[in-house]
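Write out structure tokens for Chlorite dismutase.
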Amino acid sequence: MSDRPSAPSPSESRPSGPPAGGPPASGGRPGGPPPGVRPQASLPEPSVIPEHGWHVGHYFYRFRRDCLDAPLSAELCEQFCAALAPGDEDMPKRLASYWISGHDADFGFVVMDPDPAKVEGVHQALLAPGIGRWIEPAWSFISVSEVSEYVPTVEAYRARLIREGATPDTPELDAKVTAYERRLPMMNRNRLEPEFPEWPSACFYPMNKSRVPGANWFTEPFSHRNQMMAEHAQSGMAFAGKVSQLISVGVGLDDWEWMVTLWGRNPQYLKDIVYKMRFDEASAKYGEFGPFYVGYRANGDEILKHCRMKG
């Protein structure tokens, strides 16, 4: 005979209802978790604020010249400028606006804040009654800032230096690792909450990693992906002080997986870094790129004058 207890009959297997006037049979409140399930109190509170990183928005627009026979009125110009420079209560943590080269858009802005309502608020202010009649959206991308999984830990950084020829257990190696350990928290904070440099030029483009047969990024071992991203980062380091970047993730939030924002001290550096980095294996074999926008830093009044919208 088996020691396993016999199965209950169908009637015995049905859960009994709560006794009249008493609590539910589970011992919990109606609608509460069944026995053995972790109570909701142990989960994070529902929130629109990310646990790590900030919301990021890239927005691009055209003026509706087909409907305009004259420059915008002074009142509309004032409303436009106020939308791109919100008051203290509505001002996001980061906000920068640009006039855009080419016919795809006239102007755009990049915005970051922990609260998505503040990110979206700038967009809604531009499309509000009044000025919104004369503006049409051209393109947008929604994402969040992150620390990439390819940023090496202190231990991984030490191992990389040794692979590259450093002698283990030497003061020279220890000094490099210690310096990296001191820099890492600041570097990660800059990835999550970067300051926007007040440089004159910027470019913006979304990207995916390829999934085609023979070049499927997501089937490559992590060690190989990590090696390729280390090469990619090394190429970018050659432009330190000339180009600053923000890589934000749109996975689950928008059509593309990542958004690349590059700020340049000079547009020449933007061309040079994009050209150089596309020879890296991570880009040459696995990169897929979306629409490309190039902009020049400008406040609302400067955008209106550049686009001939102000009398």
